[in-house]
Automatic annotation (TrEMBL):
CDD domains tied to this protein: SAHH (cd00401)
Organism for this UniProt entry: Methanoculleus thermophilus
Cofactor: NAD(+)
Residues binding NAD(+), per UniProt: 141-143, 175, 204-211, 227, 262, 283-285, 328, 337
Record-given protein name: S-inosyl-L-homocysteine hydrolase
Domain S-adenosyl-L-homocysteine hydrolase NAD binding span(s) in chain numbering: 175-334
GO MF, one annotated term: adenosylhomocysteinase activity
Amino acid sequence: MESGDLKIAWARQYMPVLASIRKRFVEERPFSGMTIGMALHVEAKTAVLVETLAAGGAEVHITGCNPLSTQDDVSMALNTREGIHSYARRGASVEEYYAAIDRVLDASPAITIDDGMDLIYRIHTERQEVLDTVIGGCEETTTGIHRLRAMERDGALKFPVIAVNDTPMKHFFDNVHGTGESSLASIMITTNVLVAGKRFVVAGYGYCGRGLAQKARSLGARVIVTEVDPRRALQAHMDGFDVMTMDQAAPLGDIFVTTTGNTSIITERHFPNLNDGAILANAGHFNVEIDVDWLESHSDSIVRRDGIDTYILGGKTIHVLAEGRLVNLATPKGMGHPIEVMDLSFAVQALSAEFVAKHGRKLAPGVHDVPSAIDEEVARLKLAALGLSIDRLTPEQEKYMASWAIGT
């Protein structure tokens, strides 16, 4: 068995929820005759999702959503499966990246599955003829949802998209535990530095930042949080973290991780104030949170290692991991989120794609929430896989919760 097949087989054994869904898909074939176009991180866990969709009758065309997150052996392994076509390659140039996006769209997908909205953006700008075949899509990540909601506000979004990122099963597990554990694992394996005792700056206290801050503290780090939202800043304070501006944190931090999904978080004005040897990493989707371009053009010299670019600036060293791209996947040994976490998120993806296949033509263009029944089904399947039981409401309790007339 080749290395890509071995990776996929390893992931598959820890994804019981998708296995349960796949069993039903084989019987019901909800995607029979449909083409699904995907732009996701092409690695072993994603491959299990792709296999699940293909088992449901889909012809799947997939490429990467980040030039450095593809595992080439997994991409090649997918191309040996019937009904699956992968165009992803690690280290693709910008031109190659969008050429692969176009190859996916050349297949005229009925359903799109995005991580960052690149497929949908391309359809609405350069490939509008694909609008004739798309009945709906799914979006995986916070950054993509932000972009989609902006399109919706401008009246530019021409088909319905399910906001997979915004469901509780994604926020509570993927964003908190997945981002927290995988980002720290990649930072530690890439740098081999000790986290305990370090001043660890987390930019952004959404679900991803919250998980990262909690995991770093559990390793003994002294965590600082920067925020722009007063409610999240107050929450971070109440959770026991130091809260300050990035200007204040810059001269204090040893390790910085951005999780905002926004641009220009650590920039020209912060670099001169960083400690010698500061480590900068990004856990947001796009490589815009750390101004790497400024460092590239203004540094006195640059030393490049696997996954680490060291910039010498006025005698001071600044280390940037993974070129400022998604640190948990773009480092040479980055494995992405833990398998069990992605089992849940990709189960939501699979069931949301099925929902689009069945109901997409009836939905209005715009961003739609994942139906609560799908979210609950994934949780129940996971509980069953763990051998755990929970209580159910009695008729009396259901009546009480539904009534306004029953008082004290």
